[in-house]
Amino acid sequence: MALSLGLNCLRSSPIVCYATSNHFHSSDAAFIRRAAELADKSAGFTSPHPNFGCVIATPAGNVAGEGYLYAQGTKPAEVQAVEAASELSKGATAYLNMEPGDCHGDHTAVSALVEAGITRVVVGIRHPLKHLQGNAVRALRSQGLQVDVLGEDLQSKIIEDARKSCLLVNAPLIHRANSRVPFSILKYAMTLDGKIAASSGHAAWISSRKSRNRVFELRGRSDAIIVGGNTVRRDNPRLTARHGGGHMPMRIVMSQTLDLPEEANLWDICDVSTIVVTQRGAKRSFQKLLASKGVEVMEFDVLNPREVMEYFHDRGYLSILWECGGTLAASAISAGVIHKVFAFVAPKIIGGKSAPTPVGELGMVEMSQALDLIDVCFEKVGPDMLISGFLQPIPELTPIIPSEDETFAIDPTVSPYESSIIFFYKTWDPYGAFSNFSPHPIQMFDSNGDYATWSSVEHYYQAHKFVGVNDPAAKDCIEKIKSAKSPEEAARMGRSMQRQCPHLSMCAGEI
After folding, report:
1. Catalytic residue from among 37, 66, 78, 458
2. Nearest partner of 189 among 325, 93, 39, judged by Cα
3. Tell me: the pLDDT tens digits for 363-387?
């Protein structure tokens, strides 16, 4: 898939060669942009880890091999590229959109480049995670390779555009690392006169089929989709990523009163789960109905977009797509949790004083108060125009990582010095994952040396409190935790069993 959702607006910038040195840097920039394009192919599959791409180029400037990280736990992009280049790797240059994430004894990516005979490495940006930043660059240089980080030795428009492509392809990770909320995109389709539905509420279809297919792609690149109660009542959406080629994102409904239909497509969780977030105490009977259907309900003392986003940040969500109506969109923008906007504008006029608009009241009374988009891109999609841009600039690469003391304050039962427990609770793990509550499954070696799949890091973490205990109850607890429907449920099971039966836990000293 072309970089139509994030990087295509950079493609129009021509690479001009003015002199020999400029030609050298122009070539570097072009290959780095290609590495970013490759990295973008895995968007939605690698979350919450970065998107990596690698290009191997010969001294003559020909591409010898390419690769990108397909998904969590798959072969690194650098390994794929050198395998594709084979003998042509000797004396070649490797171009990486981001510094490799090798750490804690895992030197796969660095070793692949060194052993292949690569003599020079060009990195688009350093790793955004502070505890990994610079590690691979130092390791490569210690092996005698020349390592250049784009933009650190020369500044130019061509170099800046290439570096920007690297930032864009991992913008969700960089935003989330700095802001403590997931990277959020507000998407809507509207008529030429700014309406998202007719006065009657009818909205199918404003945009073209091609635009709707692009929305499926956007969904496939996201961890979750958020809608409000009005959208559920009016449209009865499925919010799937069909035709998008990506994974199936979680579906989230925000409703303060739970004035929702008893039957809705979102309550069907056969293919993908749904979470309903609401005000504490709202319609207990309806909450029980949703729970009976397998829908998870989360209550908040104060239901507002920032509180909800901070909660899903703690659950490990990296990117969220908002497909809500104007009222919730305005609330999210006012809360500062929307980072980018995708607006599909159809060449239609429907009029109507009461016809809804994409963004409700923001409290602005003068045009000087209007919010300006940054890095605006325009693209024709079928008969429609897609306008996209950032509401907030991409922040500096300085993530906020909780210290061990801060993590201990969150959960005193966790000890970073307990050798039988892997320490990565509600923080980045050694390999860059953000949270035990990440919605993505992981693969870990079992006692037989085979890969076993766990629904989340939290499932694995809680179950391994009881691994190695020769007691049927401990083994039964492990199986129950492994089949828990959510990370929260796994956490409740593990902590409860640890407190009730400390003799079953390998880490009884933590209590």
Report:
1. 78
2. 325
3. 988 999 999 999 999 999 999 999 9
